[in-house]
Amino acid sequence: MKEHVKALLKKRGVEMMDIAEIVFEMQNKYLPIDMDMCLRVVESVLEKNEVQNAILTGIALDMAAEKKQVEEPLLSMLLGDEPLYGV
Question: Is 51 helix (H, G, I), strand (E, B) or coil?
Answer without folding.
Answer: helix
